[in-house]
Amino acid sequence: MKILLISDIHSNIQALAAVLTAEADADAVYCAGDLVDYGPFPREVIDLVRERNIPCVSGNHDERVVAFARSREAWVDMRPQDRHWVHQNVEALDAGDIAFLDALPESLEFIADGHYYHMRHRGAEGYELIQLLPEFEAHWSAGQSPDRTHEQTARVIIGHTHIQAVHYLADDRLWVNPGSVSYRPTRQDLDVSRDAEYMTVVDGEIRFHRLSYDRRKTYLFTRNLPLVDSEKRVGQRLFGGT
Ligand SMILES: [Fe+2]
What we know:
It contains 9 helices and 9 strands. The chain is an alpha/beta fold and about 240 residues long. It has a single domain, classed as Metallo-dependent phosphatases (Purple Acid Phosphatase, chain A, domain 2). The termini are far apart. The mean pLDDT is about 90. Bound molecules: fe (ii) ion. Fe (ii) ion binds next to loops.
């Protein structure tokens, strides 16, 4: 069985479409959250995720867009050049899209090739990582699967940090972060790659992937968006033309 693991799409439809095309033979796809915010095409991303029926958990940016949609009256008269990504994303979405984001579960679980998977957006508070086995077990036991036991192989899927990693805490206990489909962490100044990152799990074996894709539409659209200069500069750096 081939599983495609994606996370942190951040309204980047070009990257998402490229990854799904490159891994079209995947038997299942799962997304660890942050479908929207910090990219220009939230509606297209939600449409494609819904069309493909991709199970997703809710990320902090999904929650943020829902919160700003609910408080829209407070900022709707804001000048276009003062707007942030979150305002642009809310304006691009309709009530059905917001309801979809709002209904995303906090976590979900599945079994594949003998491994038990528990997926949620964050591993810990802020950008902390799961470092200790008791932390892992606490995270794991927050899940819902009724037939899970501690003897079964446990794999946690998290996103949020936009840093690809596989972290073993025991032979049969690990967490994976598939990286961001859209962009690298802005604080990671040395990493200039703008490729899409994701993982596949083929018959239980975890594989890292980086995919170069056509960013021109995302870059040009970002360049022309009415956004506050600081956010536009970040967007242009993330999706830069070179
Ligand atoms: Fe994210």
